[in-house]
Amino acid sequence: MTGVLEDSEKTTGGDRYAVAQIRGPFLKLPKHPDHCSTTDELKAYCDRRRATGQILAADLFSGAGGISLGLEEAGYEVVLGVDHYTEAVKTHAHHFAGMSVDWDLSTVDSIIKVADLMKECGIEILAGGPPCQPFSKAGRNGIRKLVEEGRREPKDERRELWRSYIEIVDRARPRAIIMENVPDMALDTEMFIFRSLVEELEQLDYSVYAKVIETWRYGVPQHRQRLIVVAFRDGLEFEWPDDYPEKVSLWNAIGDLPEVEGGWRPEGGADGWAEYDEPLTEFQRYIRRRVTTADAHKVFDHITRPVREDDREIFEMMDSSTKYSDLPEHLRRYRADIYDDKYKRLDENDVSRTITAHIAKDGYGFIHPRQPRTLTVREAARIQTFPDDFRFNGPPSAAFKQIGNAVPPRAAGAIAKKMVDAIERDVPKKRSSREISKSLGRWFHDRASNQRVLPWLWTDDRWKAAVGEIVLSRMKKTLVDQLWPVINNMPAATAENPTAADTTVAVLTDMLTGIGQQNRAKKLREFHEQTSAAPEGFWALKIDRTVIKSVGKADAEMIDLIAPHREYGDKSEEPVLTTRGVLRVTSRYKSISMERRNQLTDGRIAVARMLGLGPDSREAHLALIEVAQAHCRIKNPVCSGCPLLATCDRFAVEQDEIG
User: Fold this and answer.
1) Catalytic residue positions, numbered
2) pLDDT digits over 544-588, tens only?
3) Which of 30, 117, 531, 557 is most exposed, with the fewest beta carbons within 10 Å of its own?
4) What domain range is 354 assigned to?
């Protein structure tokens, strides 16, 4: 396939090193035959569809419709799409019946309008991927107060978008929801947004499930992690989809598409196509499944940006292992120490790297595995699992942006099908985060002092908590029982008088030396010297380890959790810890693998789920640490007396095996 982009179709914006940006062709899609222009039309349409037994869905922050496609693949019909990007709204309006609208969901009016429409139209399934912005400390404090009090409406007129989503759930009470976001929403230190989201949904009596999925496990030919939250109004049990039998490679996905040169355009502009032969693999047949007989030998949108001559030279010398720094120096236009992955030739035998919206501006990270050019719009769409008949309104740059922002439809469909199964099974969930957090908090509060393995967890004195961590951590209980009363009963340092503990430290170091614990004695002396010299480094909300060097990262996080300094902080800053055996407890309790990839994703989510964000969360967190040491030990766990015993997955499995 040959051809070139006309000069009138490209621009470099005056930068002689820039990649030419694609101006055309501009695709203008007609609206769906069952498009509704007014809310009255939508209500009438929904009445007709419900009369046939159809279950209706809405997709907020819908983009082009990746989740919408997945929902329809599972048998739901999406009749309402809402987004704030014009080209995506027009794409959605072409492919889906009902209404696709450009509404700003950060406003009160839009929230009420959407919720009312869902109730009036009988929409039972709500999907969406609201973007989540980081919060200031003051913002977290205010939101946490609202969450604990069971209130969901902030006073300001413009909402954070994830809170808009929850307010719509509160007002419309859909039967089930599916929410998508980047994993960073859940995996920050405090996991604040994620814990708030779960707590608020459970306050509304939804059963909630969360998982960081790798989309390639669901038949998507790319590395792409997404946080998925699924919830059911009737408190149902839900099971995640099984992994797809085989990983779909990049070449499996795009190998049947015809060769094109960079910048090629078909005759006919936006309505033109490239000649297509036939699908060769299961994935290709899946991606072509909706193509009409008339279009069986056509492929649309198989276009990409033009290729500079020096880029062509670079592309041709690269393979999938070539780094930017490996290129000849005279061909580099960027600093190799900063842009080591600036150019990336994709590996045809592996899945693609993540397609993002940035591909609309820069395709260097997505060089075709065999041809000296970047990916076409259709190739990017295939990697995201959009079917070949799915087209995107606007110019190619808008198409790339819509594709990069989307949830892969195949992954969304796999999850949506399991939602259908959960509703049909109608089995109630066994436990909620709020119930688990409350039971852990109650156990911690009632635990007798002579049973405590880590007694410093119960102090609210920051200095004593620190000394307990430094001196007593990983020490035999017999020694802990001797030393903790000394620490607890002697004068402690304060922010105003950091040397008040001089006598305590002297006595403790002598005791530690006397029992052969010279290293602990040395560490205690160093800690006391550093906190006396720079008290602000210890008494601030988070310990400044650049000046309090004797305190390791894990110890500092523990001290901040046990006793945050009241003058500087509050419990909204508490970290979510997966150390001190906590991850072991949650992994056993919820039957989660302890593989490295799960420790950083599902493991952290499991910990956050058990803590919640209610009034019991801090004590529940401390309880998990005590449970890990007292009951859920690495070897020979002592299950009797554990507050989690009644609903522990591991214990249930062991009992079944015994039975």
Assistant:
1) 132
2) 999 999 999 989 999 999 998 765 444 445 778 888 789 889 888
3) 30
4) 7-17+255-398
